[in-house]
């Protein structure tokens, strides 16, 4: 009888322990997509970061890569996992966009500043880095409006 009790006890304990990580993960997971969370963000501690948006939002990733290509900017290898700022909402021309930046680890003189309009899946931004000759270049991509360009320049 004691052997059965201990076997049942340990089996129950093992099942309960196995469920703990899943419960902790569910409790720790933020509610909503990175876009939804970014649009509601009012404190940097609550905001998602660039890699979350890049990894989870196919429309954002596609628009960013397309606009970089159109501007003849090769996507730097560090973009998906670079050093980032929190995503934050900004008002431009009566609509809310998401602003973020990502830079090359250990070389934040090489970076992208990105504005994303989740309503239209449009991306505009500013690229700063060195060209093949070593000259620093700053280039807009995604055809920013005057207001977008000013915001990007002021956050540069």
How much helix is in the residues? 40-55%
**β-strand amount:** 25-35%
Instruction: State the CATH architecture.
Output: 3-Layer(aba) Sandwich
Total DSSP E strands = 6
Structural class: alpha+beta
For CATH, the homologous superfamily is named as: Inhibitor of vertebrate lysozyme
C-alpha termini separation:
73 Å
Sum up the overall morphology in one term.
Answer: globular
Q: Number of helix segments?
A: 5
Regions with little confidence, pLDDT below 50 for 5+ residues: 5-17, 19-27
CATH class: Alpha Beta
Plain-language structure description:
There is one protein chain. With 156 residues, the chain is an alpha+beta fold. It has a single domain, classed as Inhibitor of vertebrate lysozyme, Ivy. Helices cover 40% and strands 28% of the residues. The chain is built from five helices and six strands. Strands 1, 2, 3, 4, 5 and 6 form a six-stranded antiparallel β-sheet that branches. It is globular and about 45 Å long. The N and C termini lie far apart (73 Å). The relative contact order is 0.13. About 14% of the residues have low confidence.
List the helices and strands and how they pair.
Blueprint: H1 2-28, H2 34-40, H3 50-56, H4 58-70, E1 83-84, E2 88-92, E3 95-104, E4 107-117, E5 122-130, E6 136-141, H5 146-154
Antiparallel strand pairs: 1-3, 2-3, 3-4, 4-5, 5-6
Short note summarizing the structure:
With 156 residues, the chain is α+β, with helices and mostly antiparallel strands. The protein is 40% helix and 28% strand. Strands 1, 2, 3, 4, 5 and 6 form a six-stranded antiparallel β-sheet that branches.
């Amino acid at each position: 009888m004691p052997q059965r009790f201990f076997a049942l006890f340990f089996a129950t304990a093992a099942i309960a322990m196995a469920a703990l990580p899943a419960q902790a993960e569910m409790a720790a997971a933020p509610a909503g997509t990175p876009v939804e969370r970014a649009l509601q963000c009012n404190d940097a501690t609550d905001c998602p970061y660039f890699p979350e948006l890049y990894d989870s939002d196919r429309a954002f990733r596609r628009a960013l890569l397309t606009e970089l290509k159109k501007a003849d900017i090769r996507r730097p290898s560090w973009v998906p996992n670079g050093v980032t700022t929190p995503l934050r909402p900004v008002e431009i021309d009566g609509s809310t966009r998401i602003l973020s930046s990502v830079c090359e680890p250990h070389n934040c003189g090489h970076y992208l500043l990105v504005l994303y309009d989740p309503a239209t899946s449009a991306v505009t931004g500013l690229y700063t880095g060195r060209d093949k000759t070593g000259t620093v270049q700053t280039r807009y991509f995604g055809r920013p409006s005057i207001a977008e360009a000013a915001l990007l320049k002021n956050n540069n």
